[in-house]
Amino acid sequence: MQIQQVLTDQKALTVAFAHEVTKKLSGAYREKAPELTDEFKDAFDVAIAEYAVADGIQLPGIPIPPFVPKKV
């Protein structure tokens, strides 16, 4: 499965979970919950945008340190 699809699925699951949790909250917690949910959604949107490009998926470069054999 491609990273973009995984992130999109995780975003949907997170929003659904947050919605169910919010229904069980009361008072100030219930009022603030949508703000927190929006932060989660925004973070997923940023992550999805980082990996999505017009013609597919682009992964960020992973720095690989030079190999240095251990002395025995």
UniProtKB/TrEMBL annotation:
<protein>
    <submittedName>
        <fullName>Uncharacterized protein</fullName>
    </submittedName>
</protein>
